[in-house]
């Protein structure tokens, strides 16, 4: 925000009001996650800690705050200070009295609402009670998972606002989740019941992949799994409210669901899912869905099938940088690393969609890579169609799709009865452009022509057909000429007899007024053109002459002077004033009639919402395919269509693979690399090489290529064969371990234990620099043990980047282990990173080489070489045995049943049992 804008904000200054202060102090302000805004008609005020929080969040300073009185003058009741989200106030702050911030209605208010939801705050809007001084009542409230009452503000929000209700139970020893999830804005509702392992990996994936924003949690503190779920939610940064058991009741659930979904769709509901159905009743109650008759029969049933998508947890989203996760440090401000622009996410790279619907769908696809080969091939066929037919792609991108506005927004407005005639005209414009899209699609004649016809052309034709009635209605009712010429949106007067009659009378009145204008000019002995008519809402028609001619009005009682302005003198005569009265009455009558007719028109338009939704989904899908094809073709080297092998079959072989985001960075001339992950032959690859040599980039690019292939997108490679995987598990870098108050070593251990428990023989495991948090020996020992465990017990594909050069010996012991290294050249006493991945272990200790280049004393170099040799001969079987035994026991520990300190103690005692030193 610019200084100017900020200055403007502070122009709205609310005067100190002691009555309000006592009302405010009397409120229950204990919930530090709620921010209260007071609607003062035209602007809003925020007070106390809420004001400080918003000032810091939005304006990044406290300058815009005003303080009322001093703390000593204020009523005695203390406000609970928000210690977590804003720094504790200094004495100076508390002495200043009650903080007060005013924000303007419109853009500023909208921005702040969006930011508050992003900060996971609950929002309350308070309005003054009519005719009561300093008495306020709650008029709106919302939270991140329930933004219904703020829809008008959040229309352009890309992400959905999905709330879930969650019940945890155990069946036959396994954890079972009964989940209901819903988005009141997009009117979707779903239920799902699934089992989970002790790591809750299914729940983790569900939260990430369904974009859950908030949770209503079945309160059951005695339940052993309950604390684990709470920890998982906190880890995924999902705010949750503990809800009494009574709200999870199946009593009226079936009936309530039928009401919202409509009876037909109800057949698809699996009512056997008792826990999920109970969660649904809780969700319906807390979102207050039944209080809005507009919702009845309008909800769509959404399915979540755990077996349909690749599992991805937050560590993988972070490790592969699939989407931008907004991360926060303990001060509540965004991490600078998380906002770095250089390091763009895969979603950011791909999202060059032309429509907001496309962007939303793409986000969903990126989060939910598919497992079914047929579905993947189908998507690839479409991408191929638009990739090969340049003309088709360019025409859709640069013309046809660009002009299609946000249909989701339109349907939301129409459904919520917040639409205007302008929205109808906009929709009419979009519908009129559809034949152009259709003819562009019809122009294609490639191999997938039939598929294009069956999936897009036929549906679009039928949608255009079904919209005919809508178009006819708009043409008949709305004055389109006025809309096009003057951007005024009204009902055509010829549409309704009564309206036409009133219009006639209005015209007649205006004509009479015009007659008096001419007569007045005559009376004043002025040329007719010098007496003008001026119309304003307030005064109706007035006459106007130039200031020079004002003398002509002097001393003549029949002329009533209204105002003298730069452009002349405004005056009137009795007859015009009388006609003005008539004109005003007629105008009011006309407007009234117009309103009624507009309302009816909008009601009819709202009946087209299901059709708009169908169109929106068709355009979104088309846009995503076209965009994926576009990105694939504009990459520094075009992407290629991957060859897909069903889950658990075939190998993953990539020739000339590239990292899609690193290759587009400025100044990077990317070196492509190959990899062959062959089952039973080379499914475990160890990557060694110098620091900054490109190890992480290489293993992440393999993860991203597999992920992109399963989304149905082309991939950055010369040739790619991808065997579908059930999940990608990544442990990349120590990450934010400090934030959670866990040592780097513990964080590594926890994440790795999770991988060991969750991975299957059909997974892709990506491990980067394991063991950095420990002493060299133990780090190495653990890395060795973990690698061995993955090879022998899990199977699956694994890429293991490590700085432990000695780990490469594994290749001699385990047949499926192969070594790769990133190369560097040390010719002519220079050290150049080549980024080329080659087979075999890295044969040089580059660390020492760099030390030589840096002119280290000879003695240091010699000692380093000696020590390195010692380490190389690290093959003591007893030591290795110790590490293996440690790992056997380590993986059995259930970290979820203890807190961090307890876990740490257990691991420490286990380490000491096997004489492993991590200090
Ligand atoms: N194939 C490549 N072609 C060109 N540049 C590359 C390539 N791979 C990596 N780089 C560049 O090198 C930088 C370092 O790469 P990366 O982080 O992958 O190295 P690393 O070996 O994992 O390093 P470290 O061991 O220090 O973690 C990248 O940011 C990128 O700019």
From TrEMBL:
The keyword Coiled coil applies. It comes from the Eukaryota. Belongs to the DNA mismatch repair MutS family. One of its GO terms (biological process) is mitotic recombination. SUPFAM superfamilies: DNA repair protein MutS, domain II, DNA repair protein MutS, domain III, P-loop containing nucleoside triphosphate hydrolases. It holds the Pfam family MutS_IV. One of its GO terms (cellular component) is nucleus. The keyword DNA-binding applies. This is DNA mismatch repair proteins mutS family domain-containing protein. It comes from Dictyostelium purpureum. Keywords: ATP-binding, Coiled coil, DNA damage, DNA repair, DNA-binding, Nucleotide-binding, Nucleus. Residues 569-596 form a coiled coil. It is found in: Nucleus. SMART domains: MUTSac (SM00534), MUTSd (SM00533). InterPro entries: DNA_mismatch_repair_Msh2, DNA_mismatch_repair_MutS_C, DNA_mismatch_repair_MutS_clamp, DNA_mismatch_repair_MutS_core, DNA_mismatch_repair_MutS_N, DNA_mismatch_repair_MutS_sf, DNA_mmatch_repair_MutS_con_dom, Msh2_ATP-bd. Residues 763-779 form the DNA mismatch repair proteins mutS family domain. PANTHER family: DNA MISMATCH REPAIR PROTEIN MSH2 (PTHR11361:SF35), DNA MISMATCH REPAIR PROTEIN MUTS FAMILY MEMBER (PTHR11361). One of its GO terms (molecular function) is ATP-dependent DNA damage sensor activity.
């Amino acid at each position: 925000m610019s200084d100017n804008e900020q200055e403007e904000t502070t122009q709205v200054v609310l005067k100190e009001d002691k009555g309000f202060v006592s009302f405010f102090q009397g409120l229950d302000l204990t919930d530090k996650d709620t921010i209260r805004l007071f609607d003062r008609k035209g602007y809003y005020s925020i007070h106390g800690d809420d004001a400080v929080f918003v000032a810091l969040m939005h304006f990044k300073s406290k300058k815009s705050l005003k303080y009322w009185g001093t703390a000593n003058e204020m009523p005695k009741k203390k406000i609970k200070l928000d210690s977590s989200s804003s720094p504790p106030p200094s004495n100076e702050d508390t002495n200043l009295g009650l903080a007060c911030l005013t924000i303007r209605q419109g853009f500023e208010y909208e921005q702040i609402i969006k930011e508050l939801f992003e900060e996971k705050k609950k929002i309350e809007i308070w309005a003054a009670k009519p005719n009561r001084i300093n008495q306020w009542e709650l008029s709106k409230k919302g939270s991140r998972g329930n933004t219904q009452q703020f829809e008008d503000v959040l229309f352009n929000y890309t992400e959905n606002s999905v709330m879930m209700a969650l019940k945890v139970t155990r069946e036959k020893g396994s954890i079972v989740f009964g989940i209901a999830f819903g988005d009141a804005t997009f009117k979707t509702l779903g239920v799902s019941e699934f089992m989970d392992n002790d790591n809750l990996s299914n729940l983790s994936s569900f939260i990430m992949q369904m974009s859950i924003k908030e949770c209503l949690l079945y309160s059951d503190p005695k339940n052993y799994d309950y604390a684990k779920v709470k920890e998982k939610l906190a880890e995924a940064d999902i705010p949750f409210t503990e809800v009494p058991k009574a709200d999870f009741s199946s009593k009226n659930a079936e009936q309530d669901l039928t009401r919202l979904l409509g009876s037909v769709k109800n057949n698809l509901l699996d009512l056997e899912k008792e826990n999920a159905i109970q969660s649904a009743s809780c969700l319906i109650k807390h979102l207050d869905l039944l209080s809005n008759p507009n919702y009845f029969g309008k909800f769509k049933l959404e399915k979540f099938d755990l077996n349909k998508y690749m599992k991805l947890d937050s560590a993988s989203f972070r490790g592969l940088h699939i989407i931008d996760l907004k991360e926060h440090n303990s001060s509540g401000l965004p991490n600078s690393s998380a906002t770095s622009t250089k390091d763009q996410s895969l979603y950011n790279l791909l999202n060059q969609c032309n429509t907001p619907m496309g962007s939303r769908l793409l986000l969903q696809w990126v989060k939910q890579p598919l497992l079914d080969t047929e579905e993947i091939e189908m998507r690839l066929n479409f991408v191929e169609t638009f990739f090969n037919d340049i003309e088709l792609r360019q025409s859709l991108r640069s013309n046809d799709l660009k002009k299609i506005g946000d249909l989701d927004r339109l349907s939301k407005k129409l459904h919520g009865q917040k639409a205007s005639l302008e929205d109808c005209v906009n929709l009419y414009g979009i519908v009129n452009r559809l034949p152009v899209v259709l003819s562009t699609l019809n122009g294609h004649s490639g191999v997938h022509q039939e598929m294009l016809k069956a999936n897009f052309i036929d549906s679009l034709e039928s949608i255009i057909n079904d919209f005919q009635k809508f178009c006819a209605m708009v043409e008949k009712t709305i004055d389109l000429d006025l809309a096009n010429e003057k951007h005024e949106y009204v009902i055509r007067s010829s549409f309704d007899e009564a309206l036409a009659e009133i219009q006639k009378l209005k015209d007649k009145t205006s004509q009479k007024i015009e007659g008096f204008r001419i007569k007045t000019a005559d009376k004043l002995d002025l040329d007719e053109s010098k007496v003008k008519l001026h119309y304003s809402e307030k005064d109706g028609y007035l006459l106007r002459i130039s200031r020079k001619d004002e003398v002509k009005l002097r001393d003549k009682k029949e002329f009533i002077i209204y105002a003298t302005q730069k452009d002349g003198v405004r005056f009137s005569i009795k007859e015009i004033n009388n006609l003005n009265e008539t004109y005003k009455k007629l105008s009011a009558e006309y407007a009234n009639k117009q309103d009624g007719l507009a309302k009816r028109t909008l009601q009819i338009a709202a009946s087209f919402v299901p059709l708009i939704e169908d169109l929106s989904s068709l355009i979104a899908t088309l846009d995503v395919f076209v965009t994926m094809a576009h990105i694939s073709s504009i990459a520094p080297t075009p992407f290629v269509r991957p060859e897909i092998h069903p889950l658990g079959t075939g190998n993953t072989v990539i020739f000339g693979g590239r990292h899609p985001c690193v290759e587009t960075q400025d100044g990077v001339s990317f070196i492509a690399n190959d990899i062959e992950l062959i089952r039973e032959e080379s499914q475990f690859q160890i990557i060694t090489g110098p620091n900054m040599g490109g190890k992480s980039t290489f293993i992440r690019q393999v993860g991203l290529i597999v992920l992109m292939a399963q989304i149905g997108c082309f991939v950055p490679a010369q040739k790619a064969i991808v065997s579908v995987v059930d999940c990608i598990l990544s442990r990349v870098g120590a990450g934010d371990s400090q934030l959670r108050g866990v040592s780097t070593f513990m964080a590594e251990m926890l994440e790795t234990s999770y991988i060991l428990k969750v991975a299957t023989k059909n997974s892709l495991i990506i491990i980067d620099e394991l063991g950095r948090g420990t002493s060299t020996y133990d780090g190495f020992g653990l890395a060795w043990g973990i690698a061995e465990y993955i090879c022998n017990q899990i199977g699956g594909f694994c890429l293991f980047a490590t700085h432990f050069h000695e780990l490469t010996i594994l290749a001699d012991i385990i047949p499926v282990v192969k070594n790769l290294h990133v190369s560097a050249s040390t010719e002519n006493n220079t050290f150049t990173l080549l980024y080329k991945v080659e087979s075999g272990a890295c044969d040089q200790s580059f660390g020492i080489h760099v030390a030589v280049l840096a002119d280290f004393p000879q003695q240091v170099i010699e000692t380093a070489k000696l020590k390195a040799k010692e380490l190389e001969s690290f093959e003591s079987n007893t030591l290795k045995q110790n590490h293996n035994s440690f790992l056997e026991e380590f993986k059995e520990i259930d970290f979820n049943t203890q807190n961090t300190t307890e876990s740490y103690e257990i691991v420490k005692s286990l380490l000491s049992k096997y004489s492993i030193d991590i200090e």
